[in-house]
Amino acid sequence: MVRARRAVEDLPAYKPGRNPADLAREIGVERAVKLASNEVAFPPLPAVVAALAAAAGETNRYPDNGAAVLTRALADRYDVDPAQVATGCGAVTLCQELAQAYNDPGTSIAFAWRSFEMYPLLARVAAARAIQVPLVPGRPGGPADTHDLEALAASVDDSTRLVFVCNPNNPTGTAVRRPELERFLDAVPDQALVVLDEAYREFVTDPDVPDGIELMRGRPNVVVLRTFSKAWGLAGLRVGYLIAEDPAVATAVRKTHVPFSVSMLAQAAAVAALASEDEVRTRCAAVTAERERLTGALRGRGVEVEDSQANFVWLPLGERTTDVAAALEARAVITRPFAGEGIRVTVGTPEEDDVFLAALDEVGAAAV
Ligand SMILES: *Cc1c(COP(=O)(O)O)cnc(C)c1O
């Protein structure tokens, strides 16, 4: 029998989240609410749909492998040179391409934990060592919830090639502020590339949470990852991008790019979305207003919810996590549980969030 690499055999099989239509059918309700994947609830903008329709008639051709139009639009938007930009089939693919570009077997990738689930998988597939630095508790005795940047900087050694900082952090929603992030960037040695994963940047409302693209300037070992999947509403199309201070980083990533993996439709939609930024901002403002309402409603029920800077909230339910998530699912609400730690709940529409809150009341989870 041909065997997969040991590192791959040992990986857990990907477990997709519940599909809301299947769940609704199974429990005999009209509609289930999915608050599990941090998508926005709004349908694509009209300009995006029009761009997709226009591009559809050309899909007998390959897409532009260099995504020149999109790259130029991003460079203009963020005031960088196109040579500093790389696009990818979702930001997750750029994470993989970064590891392929920078991690020889035996090197290491450092990141906080708990954070984005992709990071440890990335390390394993690259045969790199994962250096996981625990989050620090936000309150004495409270849930672990924010980056320990001093410990993360101290964990970097000669073998470290990539350091991920997810800001705001998925799944806790907490964010690091400017002074501590600047201190961190000053402390990380030049041979390690710091990847500021800002998938949720557009939902940040705290002015003290820095824009990574501004912090990156003048720091050649910093790159910023962003995506069209969350705020920009294009999760189904798969397109993300990276902006590097040093163009050599973008060049290296482009060399490991899976050819043509950013589709013609994805490129067209992303360009149209960028041109509609005002509408996207209005939508983000609605999401963050609803985030504050949801946070308040949860606190009013006695759930210890931290302030979130993303489009989800984190319920630190500890040992009760799995039971509560299952009970919510039985009431047609799909969330994202992390066993033994907590539940991540995407900010939905006000109606969806009310369904979630009503289910939570029935479950009695709030009585902590
Ligand atoms: C969702 C997410 C991404 C990117 O997702 P793509 O859909 O692949 O662009 C990257 N980082 C974090 C932390 C995320 O939550």
Task: Explain what the structure shows.
This protein is of the alpha/beta class. The protein folds into two domains: 6-44 and 278-367, Aspartate Aminotransferase, domain 1, CATH 3.90.1150; 46-274, Type I PLP-dependent aspartate aminotransferase-like (Major domain) (Aspartate Aminotransferase, domain 2, 3-Layer(aba) Sandwich), CATH 3.40.640.10. It has 14 helices and 14 strands. The protein has helices at residues 6-9, 20-27, 46-56, 68-78, 91-102, 118-125, 149-155, 178-187, 212-216, 247-255, 264-275, 277-300, 321-330, 350-363, and strands spanning 33-34, 85-88, 108-113, 129-134, 136-137, 144-146, 160-166, 193-197, 222-227, 240-244, 312-315, 333-334, 336-338, 342-346. The strands form four sheets. It has a seven-stranded mixed β-sheet with strand order 2-10-9-8-7-3-4, with helices on both faces. A hairpin with a 6-residue loop joins strand 5 (136-137) and strand 6 (144-146). It is globular, with a radius of gyration of 21 Å. The model has no long low-confidence stretch (mean pLDDT 95). Pyridoxal-5'-phosphate binds next to helix 5.
TL;DR of this structure?
It is built from 14 helices and 14 strands.
Number of domains: 2
- The name of the CATH superfamily of the largest domain reads Type I PLP-dependent aspartate aminotransferase-like (Major domain)
- Regions with pLDDT < 50 over 5+ consecutive residues? none
**Beta-strand level of the residues, as a percent range?**
15-25%
Shape annotation: globular
DSSP summary: helix tally: 14
Q: Name the CATH class of the largest domain.
A: Alpha Beta
Ligands (ions, cofactors included): pyridoxal-5'-phosphate
Q: How many beta-strand runs?
A: 14
If classified by CATH, what would the architecture of the largest domain be?
A: 3-Layer(aba) Sandwich
Rg, rounded, reads 21 Å
Strand order of the largest sheet: 2-10-9-8-7-3-4
What is the CATH topology descriptor of the largest domain? Aspartate Aminotransferase, domain 2
Mind summarizing the main beta sheet? Answer: 7 strands, mixed
Helix and strand string, N-terminal first?
Answer: HHEHHEHEHEEEHEHEHEEHHHEHEEEH
Distance between the termini: 52 Å
Structural class: alpha/beta
